[in-house]
Amino acid sequence: MVPSVLTMDKHNYKNQAPYIVCYAKKIHFFRSIFIVTFFLLSINYYWPRRYQLTRFRSPPICGGRAPNDTITPLKNQRTFIISAYKDNREGNIIRILGIVHHQEVKELYCYFCCNSNTNATTTRAGIDIHQDRFGFPYGLADIICTEPPDCRAEFVSVHWSPSEVVHNLTSFRIRNRDPGQFTANFTVCFSTMFGNYSNVLQFIQTIEMYKILGAQKVMVYLNNCSQQMEEVLQYYTEEGTVEVIPWHIQRYLKVSHNWQYPNDGTEIGYYGQLSTLNDCLYRNMYSSKFVVLNDQDEIILPFKHRTWDSMMESLQWENPNVGIFLFENHIFAKTAVSNGNFTNTSSWNGVPGSNLLQYIHREPDRPNYFNARKMIVDPRAVIQTSVHSTLKQYKNFKNIPLETALVHHCRGPLQPQLPRAALIEDKTIWSYNGSLIQNVNRMLEKFITKP
Ligand SMILES: *[C@@H]1O[C@H](CO)[C@@H](O)[C@H](O)[C@H]1NC(C)=O
Ligand SMILES: *[C@@H]1O[C@H](CO)[C@@H](O)[C@H](O)[C@H]1NC(C)=O
Ligand SMILES: *[C@@H]1O[C@H](CO)[C@@H](O)[C@H](O)[C@H]1NC(C)=O
Ligand SMILES: *[C@@H]1O[C@H](CO)[C@@H](O)[C@H](O)[C@H]1NC(C)=O
Ligand SMILES: *[C@@H]1O[C@H](CO)[C@@H](O)[C@H](O)[C@H]1NC(C)=O
Ligand SMILES: *[C@@H]1O[C@H](CO)[C@@H](O)[C@H](O)[C@H]1NC(C)=O
Ligand SMILES: *[C@@H]1O[C@H](CO)[C@@H](O)[C@H](O)[C@H]1NC(C)=O
Ligand SMILES: *[C@@H]1O[C@H](CO)[C@@H](O)[C@H](O)[C@H]1NC(C)=O
Ligand SMILES: *[C@@H]1O[C@H](CO)[C@@H](O)[C@H](O)[C@H]1NC(C)=O
């Protein structure tokens, strides 16, 4: 197949069959090599380049071993370290994100390898468990250590006793030491992708919409997805849009599918959603001007502007003291299907998943009901975040009115009893039809003909 959008479209108009055969063959081919590639890729992502080089050239004189997963259990299995960040906003503070048992973890120590000392310097950590734990025994905590004076440690280790041999501990690279420059205006942080996630078409459309709206990067904390979804994630990883962080939390903790504790012996809510959101925020604190915190079935759609850039420029100008912008969530129910009579979408038929362009009816707000919001934040203004609001921050928040934008949340209905006439027609997503269809087609063409 000639790698050109035009050729593919002509091909599709005449006869869809060869395309599907080609697609199926390709999928089969990828299935055989994908697991290995994806594994290598994840490892490569997981081990940042500098870390590899540093360890290769000059192993830290007093450091311990490197983590072998995104989540590292400490020996007593009550504390799980995710990653360590220099917090330049608060003096010499190292903020380590970890999941802890809220009653049983009272004492932790940081081990710093300072300069050329062979012995680590130990300081006692403060433990700040995030307020939103939703009743589960385990929750995200900020493990906060003050870096010793004149110390510029590249790694930090954590233990509940102050007298361990640092070689026997795991050393975490301290990220965000050098703020550097923005490489993105907008980075989207999804909470965990889990449960054989296989809504491939909607995912591709969503990523392409984010790019049209102004995103350069999308972070995926991957617990589990279908084979085809893995291939799509690999495509976008190679393109540079997606960064996959392996997130196998159930190796260590009993996860709940609920956000709130059902008193059923589970240990942490919703696959550790709050941990991934906060980790994503800190990972992108200095590389991204804004961070967008929403799920993979949600798109913040502006009404007054065409892109997030122009919308945020205007919102920031109007609200100079605001760093957290909250957008109303509105349900576009997958039960109300509309056909937009769009051309050039025949290649989508072979792709599993929902087609965003078919859902233009949203449910009205329910009175006396919590209508959720999602956020675009200046990450440097946030200390701790929850799902629908931040918990600790340096700047104000603002609820953005519906006239400006909404969160287009395409999913099953929350009010299934409502007749179609009671739904609100909202064709905003259709106004992006031209570029969306073209970009999705271009992606599918490259994805399928990829050597
Ligand atoms: C369909 O796509 C082709 C190639 O991208 C383009 O030339 C053509 O104008 C499109 N048709 C419509 C109706 O948008
Ligand atoms: C990481 O290393 C520890 C100790 O060496 C081992 O028990 C554990 O299974 C490893 N985890 C993974 C994900 O490889
Ligand atoms: C490092 O620790 C060892 C054993 O705890 C001790 O004997 C040695 O003096 C220490 N070295 C320095 C430079 O503090
Ligand atoms: C540290 O590891 C060594 C082997 O590498 C072991 O002999 C020693 O007992 C360990 N020390 C502690 C305090 O666990
Ligand atoms: C961010 O936005 C500015 C202005 O809107 C633009 O000039 C710049 O290229 C964007 N940065 C990236 C990384 O795309
Ligand atoms: C996802 O879970 C299914 C069922 O448990 C399993 O077969 C599949 O290998 C998992 N995929 C990944 C990427 O972990
Ligand atoms: C995962 O989803 C795909 C696509 O829907 C399906 O073909 C496959 O059987 C599912 N796998 C598991 C382990 O549920
Ligand atoms: C769909 O579009 C075609 C041309 O693109 C037009 O001829 C036809 O009337 C349209 N159908 C509907 C139901 O709008
Ligand atoms: C598709 O987008 C164009 C502008 O990009 C707009 O004129 C047209 O009305 C849109 N189509 C639909 C069905 O909304």
Describe this entry's structure for a reader.
- It holds the Pfam family Glyco_transf_92.
- Keywords: Glycosyltransferase, Membrane, Transferase, Transmembrane, Transmembrane helix.
- It comes from Xenopus tropicalis (Western clawed frog).
- Its main location: membrane.
- With 451 residues, the protein is α/β, with parallel strands linked by helices.
- It folds into two domains: 104 residues, Immunoglobulin-like; 266 residues, Spore Coat Polysaccharide Biosynthesis Protein SpsA, Chain A (Alpha-Beta Complex).
- 25% of the residues lie in helices and 26% in strands.
- It is built from eight helices and 22 strands.
- Strands 1, 2, 3, 4, 5, 6, 7, 8 and 9 form a nine-stranded mixed beta sheet that branches. Strands 10, 11, 12, 13, 14, 15, 17, 20 and 21 form a nine-stranded mixed beta sheet that branches. Strands 16-22 form a two-stranded antiparallel ribbon.
- The longest helix has 30 residues.
- The protein binds 2-acetamido-2-deoxy-beta-D-glucopyranose (9 copies).
- One 2-acetamido-2-deoxy-beta-D-glucopyranose binds next to loops.
- One 2-acetamido-2-deoxy-beta-D-glucopyranose (NAG) binds next to loops.
